[in-house]
Amino acid sequence: MVAGGGTWARVPPAGRGTGAGATAGRAAKGRFISRTINRSGEASSVVVVSVLTGLAVAWLIAGLHWYLWRRLVRDTTRDGSRWRIPGGIVLGTGAIAMCSAFAVMFAEVDRADWRWLTWPGFLWAALFLYLLLGVLAGEVVRPLLLRGLVRRDAGTAAPAGGSETPASGVVESGVTAQPVGAAVGEASGASAPRPGLPGPAAPAGPDPGAAVSGAPPPPVSRTLSRRLLVSRLAAGATVIAAGAIVGTGTYGVLNGPMVRRVTVPLAKLPAQAHGLRIALVSDLHLGPALGRAFCEQVVRTVNDTRPDLIAVVGDLADGTVDDLRAETEPLAGLTAPLGAYYVPGNHEYFSDADAWLARAGELGMKVLLNDRVSLPDFDLAGVDDPRGTGIGRGPDFAAALDGRDTRRACVLLAHQPVVVHESVGYGVDLQLSGHTHGGQLWPGPLIARLPNPTVAGLELYGATALYVTRGAGAWGPPVRAAAPSDITVLELASLQGV
C-alpha cells in the first residue's frame, strides 16, 4: 500500500515486455540458444572425430612403414650397418610425402600448384602398397626358403675326401663320435659317467675331436648366415617387383588410355542405325596429378575414333571449377555428329556439383540430369549420381524415363553401375557407366566386386545390357596395375532384318 490508498505496482524495466509476448520472446530466445549450442556441439564432435581418425591413420601408416624398415632394412643388414639410418630416412620421407599428397587432395587449395608434392607422394603410395604386399608374401616364402636350404645342406654334408661315416657312429680316424648332449670341451671318446662315480677330468688342452677332418662349422653360425641370405633375397625380389609394377603402371597412365571396341546388339535399334558408334569416356580425375596435357591427349584419342556420339559419364576432376578451369578447357574440343553428353559422378559432389554441371555446359556438352533426349534412332537418357541423395538430389528414373515410347531403344548414362537394377525395371536397353576404374590397383579388382554388380566390361541383366569402362585417368596415384585405362567405342548392332 502507498499513501492515498493506492497499491504497489511492479514496473517492468525499460525494454522488457510483459504478458504472453514476453513469454514467447523468451521461449524463442531459448530455442535459438539451444540450437546454437547443439550446432556448436555437433561441430566440436566432428572436429574431435576427425582429429582422432587422423591420429589413428597416422599411427597405422607409421607402424606399417616401421614394419617395412624392419623387413627390408634391418633384417637384411648386420648390427651396426651404416645402411640402417639411410633406409629409415627414405621410408620416413616417403610416409610424410604420401600423407601430404592426400592432404592436398582433400584440402581447399589449387591442386595444380602442389603437383611437385602430390606426384612423389602418390607414387610412393603405390610403391608402399606393393612393398607391403611383397613383404607380407615374404612372411610365407622366407621360412620355406630357409627350410629348403637347411635340408639341402644337411643332405650334402659329408667328411672331407668323400669318405662316409660308418653306421656304427665311429669316424674313420678311429676317434669315437661325441655322444649327443656332451658338453663342449669333453674329450672325444670318453664314456659318459655312470651313476655314483665321478666322471673323467676334462683335459687342459684343446678338444681333440675339434681337429677331426671334415667336421662341419657350428650349426648356429650356419643358420644365421642362411637367414641373412634369405632375407636379402626376399627383400631384393620385393623391391624389384614393386618398382617394376609401379613403373609400368605409371607409364600406362601417362601414355594415355587404350581404345577398346565392343559390339552391343540391341533388338529395338532400327536397321539404319546399325554400326552407330558411341565413344564412352569416364573418370579423368584431372587435378592433383593429371593436368591439361593429359586432358588434351584424351580428347585427341576420342576424336581419332570418329564416333557418332560421345558420352562422358562423370568424375571429370578432383577440385573446384575455378582451380581446374585451364585443365578442363581441352574438353571443348570433343566433336561428334550427334554431340557430346554428360552426367555427373560422385567426385563432382566432393566440391560443387552445380558448378561442374555449368562448366560442362560451357565446354559444349549437353547435360542429362534426370532427363532424356530423343535422337533419330533411339532415346538417350541420363541420371544423377547416387552421391547427390545426401543433398536431396540423386538419380530419378521416373523423371528421366516416364512417358517415353518403349518401342524405341533406350541408352542410359549413369556414372555408377549399381543403378542397373533400376534400369532393368524401366526397360533400359543399354546402360553406360564408369566409376569402378576396374579396380585401378591390384587387388582393387577383387575389392571393387563387393559393391559393384560389374567391375569392367559388358554383362547382361535381364534384357538390359550394362557396360562399365575402366576410365581414362586415375584417382590418387597416377598408376594402374591389372586394370589398364581405356576409352571404349561401342558399336551398336541392329537385330532388325537379320
Report on the architecture of this protein.
Helices cover about 40% and strands about 10% of the residues. It has about 500 residues and is of the alpha/beta class. Strand 7 (about 380), helix 8 and strand 8 (about 410-415) form a beta-alpha-beta unit. Helix 1 (about 20-70) runs antiparallel to helix 2 (about 85-105) and helix 1 crosses helix 3 (about 115-155). The chain is globular. The strands form two sheets. It has a six-stranded mixed sheet with strand order 1-12-2-3-4-5, covered by helices on one side. The protein has ten helices and twelve strands.
Task: Give the tally of β-strands.
Answer: 12
Q: Output the helix-strand order.
A: HHHHEEHEHEHEEEHEHEHEEE
Largest sheet: 6 strands, mixed
Radius of gyration: 37 Å
Low-confidence stretches: 1-11, 162-197, 199-206, 208-212
Derived structural class:
alpha/beta
Strand adjacency order, main sheet: 1-12-2-3-4-5
The pLDDT mean sits at 84
Overall geometry comes to globular
Give the N-terminus to C-terminus distance in angstroms.
Answer: 109 Å
Proportion of residues in helical segments:
25-40%
Quick gist of this model?
With 498 residues, this protein is of the alpha/beta class. It has ten helices and twelve strands.
Could you name the key traits of this structure?
498 residues, six-stranded mixed beta sheet
